[in-house]
């Protein structure tokens, strides 16, 4: 199995690129944001709990995210996948450490972290633009977007350092055409 993390701030293109990587390499996609939105749509307890945070642009508490992730992985592992692509997870050091433990417990490991680098100005522009069509309340409101970028800077950016120390961090320019960025991701994935 080849397991990767697609890392980067909100609006860096993780969702778009993850879909393309999934299609090309047959990986199982685990997007914690997508899972929360699905739970919300189905009006589950987990969805309701996540909503309190998502609507404010805040991170959902680690213990909620980690518990959900473990059960999702077990579900996919029954299908003996070619690998996992984690998208929007881990977003804190505690989540990164928990993922390490989870993977070790299943005799798996993270092979690579592909990190999309995009300027803050470009991020805000992209998210607000997406907000016009995505139907996501957290994309449409300037204050919520600002909060999400702040949460990234305060709690998530350090996760890159965690993987840099393990020598598995690959930084990829996340600005330019979707196809060019994808080509660079594929080169890093296959290297
Ligand atoms: P995303 O679609 O990845 O931008 O996630 C949307 C929202 O879901 C985030 O702003 C958080 O409120 C929540 N969320 C998604 N993934 C995580 C995570 N790994 N840790 C905490 N909160 C998360």
Number of alpha- plus pi-helical segments? 9
Can you tell me the CATH superfamily? P-loop containing nucleotide triphosphate hydrolases
Low-confidence stretches: none
Q: Strand content of the residues, in percent?
A: 5-15%
Could you say how many structural domains there are in total? 1
Could you report the average pLDDT, rounded to the nearest whole number?
95
Q: What is the structural class? A: alpha/beta
CATH topology: Rossmann fold
E-strand count: 5
Shape: globular
Radius of gyration: 16 Å
List the helices and strands and how they pair.
Blueprint: E1 4-7, H1 14-25, E2 28-31, H2 32-41, H3 45-54, H4 62-77, E3 84-87, H5 93-105, E4 112-117, H6 120-134, H7 137-140, H8 142-165, E5 169-173, H9 178-190
Parallel strand pairs: 1-3, 1-4, 2-3, 4-5
This protein binds adenosine monophosphate (AMP).
Adenosine monophosphate (AMP) binds at residues 10, 32-33, 36, 53-54, 57-60, 65, 88-89, 91, 95, 138, 148.
């Amino acid at each position: 199995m080849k397991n990767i993390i697609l890392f980067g701030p909100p609006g860096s293109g993780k969702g778009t690129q993850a879909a393309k990587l999934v299609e090309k390499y047959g990986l199982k996609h685990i997007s914690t944001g997508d899972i929360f939105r699905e739970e919300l749509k189905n009006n589950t307890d987990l969805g309701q709990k996540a909503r309190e945070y998502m609507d404010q642009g805040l991170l959902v508490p680690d213990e909620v995210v980690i518990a959900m992730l473990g059960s999702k992985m077990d579900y996919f592992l029954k299908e003996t996948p070619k690998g996992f692509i984690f998208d929007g997870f881990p977003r804190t050091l505690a989540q990164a450490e928990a993922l390490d433990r989870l993977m070790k417990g299943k005799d798996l490991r993270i092979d690579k972290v592909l990190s999309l680098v995009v300027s803050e100005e470009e991020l805000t522009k992209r998210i607000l633009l997406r907000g016009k069509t995505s139907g996501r309340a957290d994309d449409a409101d300037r204050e919520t977007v600002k909060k999400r970028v702040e949460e990234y800077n305060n709690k998530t950016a350090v996760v890159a350092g965690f993987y840099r120390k393990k020598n598995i961090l690959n930084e990829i320019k996340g600005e330019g055409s979707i196809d060019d960025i994808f080509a660079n991701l594929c080169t890093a994935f296959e290297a």
